[in-house]
Amino acid sequence: MATTRTETTPVSCPTAAGGGTVASTVPVGAVHAEGSPLDWGASLVEGKVVLDETVAPNAPWSAVVRTGHVLTIVDVGGNQSADCLLYNADDPEERYSVPDTLAWQGNAYVRTGTVLRSSEGRPLMTVVANEVDRQDTIGGACGKESNTLRYGHHVMFQHGCRENFLAEALRRGLGVRDIVSNLNWFMNVPVEADGALGIVDGMSAPGRRVAVRAETDALVMVSNCPQMNNPCNDFNPTPLRMIVVEPAPVADDSRSAHAARTAKEGA
């Protein structure tokens, strides 16, 4: 994957105590590189498209997905983390709960069939299709403070997913108290046998998708993670595609069979 780097030499960062410097080889301000391989994909579920939008690299996004509608998130450039929060659209105080989701399914990973539960234990959305082996809901969201600790003080003015969430929450009438632990679509956070966690190279690729069905009217908020300091995507943030469809009605097989028998007997 091609990269664009605004700085390739080590950066010297003053320590908090002012007693020296800490060298960082992390590039500063990496952005999406022109000419990167992109696969815009399509909805994983057939139906009438009611929303089809692109989330630019580093940007936030939100929408209300109506009950029964399916949202497909396309990892257009590969290994791009789509940090995600969910809320009951009619009562945002009911929101996505990591502990409820994991406890109900007895598994640390989010996979096909996982019911994404709320702080009230109720289903908000269900993963109905998934082209990545496992999705993360433990790693949390990056922010200015955590990025400074991880990458160096020279990144302290760069925004992260927490800042994206706060900006999008403001548009939706929400605030700081509404930002809770989140999902990380396409991010790879393995849980080792001893319980240790690690954010490692992703398992996604350009065009990989995940689809979630709304079990109630759900406000979905996404941060297309800046990742400008994270080598998991080669310092190259790429777009996301968000497609919401109203699935085609599923025929009732019993009624269809009865109609067929009736027609045959009548003949």
Principal-axes shape call: globular
Total beta strands: 13
Strand content: 25-35%
Structural class comes to alpha+beta
Helices, by number, come to 4
Mean pLDDT: 81
Given as residue ranges, the uncertain stretches (5+ residues, pLDDT < 50) are 1-22
Helical fraction equals 10-25%
Cα-to-Cα separation, first versus last residue: 64 Å
N to C succession of SSEs: EEEEEEEHEEHHEEEEH
Give the biggest sheet: 6 strands, antiparallel
Largest beta sheet: strand ordering? 3-13-5-11-9-8
Taking Cα atoms only, what radius of gyration do you get, to the nearest Å?
21 Å
Summed up, the domain count is 1
Structure description:
- The protein is α+β, with helices and mostly antiparallel strands and 267 residues long.
- It has one domain.
- The chain is built from four helices and 13 strands.
- The strands form three sheets. It has a six-stranded antiparallel sheet. Strands 4, 6, 7, 10 and 12 form a five-stranded antiparallel sheet that branches. A two-stranded antiparallel ribbon has the order 1-2.
SSE blueprint:
Elements: E1 11-14, E2 21-24, E3 47-55, E4 60-65, E5 70-75, E6 82-88, E7 91-95, H1 98-105, E8 115-117, E9 123-130, H2 144-151, H3 161-171, E10 183-185, E11 208-214, E12 218-224, E13 240-247, H4 253-266
Antiparallel strand pairs: 1-2, 3-13, 4-12, 5-11, 5-13, 6-7, 6-10, 6-12, 8-9, 9-11
What's this, in brief?
With 267 residues, this protein is α+β, with helices and mostly antiparallel strands. The chain has helices spanning 98-105, 144-151, 161-171, 253-266, and strands at residues 11-14, 21-24, 47-55, 60-65, 70-75, 82-88, 91-95, 115-117, 123-130, 183-185, 208-214, 218-224, 240-247.
